[in-house]
Specification:
Strand order of the largest sheet: 3-2-1-4-5
Structural class: alpha/beta
Number of helices: 7
Strand content: 15-25%
Largest sheet: 5 strands, parallel
Bound molecules: 4'-phosphopantetheine
Oligomer: single chain
Order of helices and strands: HEHEHEHEHEHH
Helix content: 25-40%
Radius of gyration: 16 Å
Number of strands: 5
Length: 182
């Protein structure tokens, strides 16, 4: 049976998309584990204007660049529009998603099917969250922080510092616009 050459493997590119508003220790765990298994990983921040994120696109990208520094073969980028179009533009073939809880699976499973129907050839792989991070989401981090709670266990130090520098008016709790948010 033929084995893949190193060259063919190096062309294999996976995309880990998300809002990363902000990036949490749970995201970072998925990034590290995905990067250990895929030779080229792009962490792609969605520009999602409809979600009115707490952090600007540039802030989210900058923070990801800081926290991903030192993880080999990881690029941080951003995109607008359909994820599958971005993946194909970047010549990728795989979407990585993290799953924390069972209800994530229902949503992500239908997204994976939809994305594959939109663009045959772009498939999705799921990584289960490590147990110690399974309860952390960006939305809960934002909520705990805006109510004065301690988020230092849930986010990398650079994110904590950035959150503490935010103008108070930006921290007003926003109405949840959808069911889930990593
Ligand atoms: O971190 P999130 O908010 O759970 O990430 C969601 C994300 C970015 C993966 C998802 O919203 C997405 O893929 N957005 C791009 C638009 C798109 O392709 N939608 C799929 C068809 S509805």
């Amino acid at each position: 049976m033929a084995t893949k050459t190193a060259d063919a493997t190096s062309k294999f590119l996976a995309v880990y998309p998300g809002s990363f508003d902000p990036v949490t220790n749970g995201h970072l765990d998925i990034i590290r584990r995905a990067a250990a298994n895929y030779p080229n990983l792009i962490v792609a921040v969605v520009a999602n204007p409809s979600k009115r994120p707490l952090l600007s696109l540039q802030e989210r990208v900058d923070l990801l660049r800081v926290v991903c520094k030192g993880i080999p073969h990881v690029e941080v980028d951003c995109f607008e529009g359909l994820l599958v179009d971005y993946v194909r533009r970047r010549k990728g073939s795989l979407i990585i998603k993290g799953l924390r809880i069972v209800s994530d699976f229902e949503y992500e499973f239908s997204m994976a099917l939809l994305n594959r129907r939109l663009r045959g050839g772009v498939d999705t792989m799921f990584l289960p969250a490590s147990l110690e991070y399974a309860f952390i989401s960006s939305s809960s981090v934002r909520e705990v922080f805006s109510l004065g709670g301690d988020i230092s266990e849930f986010v990398p130090p650079a994110v904590l510092r950035a959150m503490k520098r935010l103008d108070g008016s930006r921290l007003r709790l926003k109405k949840k616009v959808r069911r889930r948010d990593h």
